[in-house]
Design a protein that fits this description.
This protein has one domain (about 10-110): HIT-like (HIT family, subunit A, 2-Layer Sandwich). The protein is about 25% helix and about 20% strand. The chain is built from 3 helices and 5 strands, in the order αβββααββ. A 5-stranded antiparallel β-sheet has the order 1-2-3-5-4, with helices on one face. The longest helix has 17 residues, at about 60-80. It binds adenosine monophosphate.
Length: about 120
């Protein structure tokens, strides 16, 4: 799947749409999800143009991959959920119900999250 430069997260990265930033570095931007599904709900995205986790894992540089992992740990610490625990979700492609075609990791926490998954 080709990257769509007009997807909503690309527009956020270009500053065309406002966001509630919680973390930023050379490779990563993280902001609050507009429709939070837990007390803490942050989206962590690479600044590079990657469609999905599949695309990111295949094409991203070591520095970009490391930056995502480091950012997630730092954000969890900063949001005070590192000790209580949290869940990372990267919805990918059709069966993964990915809505925005720019790779993103959801950080969910701040409350008990229940079991991992309930299928329809
Ligand atoms: P996914 O199904 O994993 O692609 O999830 C996309 C997420 O992006 C959803 O949780 C949306 O609430 C969130 N979202 C969509 N537009 C925005 C926006 N402008 N700012 C913050 N979060 C957004």
């Amino acid at each position: 799947m080709a990257y769509d430069p007009n997807n909503i997260f690309a527009r956020i990265l270009r500053g065309e749409i406002p966001n509630s930033t919680v973390y930023e570095d050379a490779h990563v931007l993280a902001f609050k999800d507009i429709r939070p599904q837990a007390k803490v709900h942050v989206l962590v995205i690479p600044k590079g143009a990657y469609v999905s986790a599949q695309d990111f894992g295949a094409r991203a540089s070591e520095a970009e991959i490391a930056a995502m992992a480091r950012a997630i740990s730092k954000i969890a610490q900063d949001m005070d959920i590192a000790e209580s625990g949290y869940r990372l979700i990267a919805n990918t492609g059709g069966h993964g119900h990915q809505e925005v075609p720019h790779y993103h990791v959801h950080i969910l926490g701040g409350q008990p999250l229940g079991r991992m998954l309930s299928l329809p």
